[in-house]
Amino acid sequence: MNRSRRTVWSWAFYDWANSAFATVVLAGFFPLLFQDFWNAGAPAEIANLRLGWANAAASLVLVLSAPLLGALADAAGAHKRILFLFAVPGMAATAALTIVPEGAWLTASLLFVCASLGFLGANLLYDALLVQVAPPARWHSVSGLGFGLGYLGGGLLYLVCVAAALRPELFGLSDSTEAALGAFTLTAIWWAVFSLPLLLFVPEPGRLRETAGGSLWRDSIGQVWQTLRRLRHHRTIAVFLLAYWLYIDGVGTVIRMAVAYGRALGFERSNLILALLLVQFVGFPAAIAFGHLGERIGPRRGIYLGLAVYLLVCIWGTFIRSPWEFFTIAVLIGLVQGGVQSLSRSFYARLIPAGRSGEFFGFYNLMGKFAALIGPPLFGLFGTWFGIRYSMLALIVLFVAGGLLLSRVREHD
């Protein structure tokens, strides 16, 4: 394997590594245990609302720091170092969830916030490295490769964890709860081991822009302030970020709240676990295919296709009654979820100024995480105000408004 291919695959394998957290923890076992174990005895609506606020808390911290971290990484040439500065504590907090006792929802929430912050902060720097590991003509396909490997890697680990939860005696465990708790430690180990290719084989890009002198922190803060003041001159970027903020809010809320939603509707834990497995294994080839589709029809049309499917999911999800419907919706989400994410990342990479990827991907992640600050609590509030089934309807306006704004994005200023 030549050096450029090794760099691309090593970069993409970080998605394989950290998607274990996204799948096993964020979307899978944490929502189930948070409702059934750490919130034992609490109404489902209250548990969902607490989960929404826990997601929002991690997002708020990153919202406040993302552009500065990106600018600092550009100025210092420290994308990988800052990535692991977030990832390692995130791994530790993930492993610590294993020992949180029953009923301790506040402790579980605090550790979840720390783990999520590590995951999200590291992703900021990982996304920014895309423009360094491949030429522009390959950004759509390379971005799709990353998401595809992420779905496969996360799905494989989740499959092992599901097997342990369904048949704990075969793994020497006492019950499914012990297996689910042990999944957090296994996720932390997986995340750490498969991060090594990025650490070893993806070169630090060095300083992507020169500082004006003085301390890196002062220069980075000044650069962020200048970017904020000049963002009105980058109209294409500003409009895209607003569109992305809206529609990725809906995507992220589905990822974070779908299992809790299904549990609140009374579906069996085993059905919810299997549905998430379907999302992962359908998502693996679909995300890669969407990357190539973006090169053929353009990323905007590919994103529109995904948003149309999400609108169908929101409407259908409000009325589901049977497990087969939940499984069908899981397949639909798997077909488009990774595509919307990967094409958004590569589309944005084509819009930003050269040499400032970390800083501008800081704003990209800011909008994505600011969406998570609003979406899950709104989902939970709709459930408490109107009934749990109407939670899904809160997301329709986000997909529609985001799609309309996306139509106003010009690929060249």
UniProtKB/TrEMBL annotation:
> Which residue intervals define the domain Major facilitator superfamily (MFS) profile in the entry?
236-413
**Membrane topology listed for this record:** Multi-pass membrane protein
Signal sequence span is none
Q: Which UniProt keywords apply?
A: Membrane, Transmembrane, Transmembrane helix, Transport
PANTHER family, alphabetically?
AUTOPHAGY-RELATED PROTEIN 22 (PTHR23519:SF1)
Specify the species: Microbulbifer halophilus
Location relative to the cell: Endomembrane system
Q: Which InterPro entries match?
A: Atg22-like, ATG22/LtaA_families, MFS_dom, MFS_trans_sf
Looking at the Swiss-Prot or TrEMBL record, what is one Pfam family this protein matches? ATG22
Domain of life (superkingdom): Bacteria
Q: Where are the transmembrane segments?
A: 12-33, 53-75, 82-100, 106-126, 147-167, 179-202, 237-259, 271-290, 302-320, 326-348, 360-382, 388-407
In terms of PROSITE patterns, this protein maps to: MFS
Q: What is this protein called?
A: MFS transporter
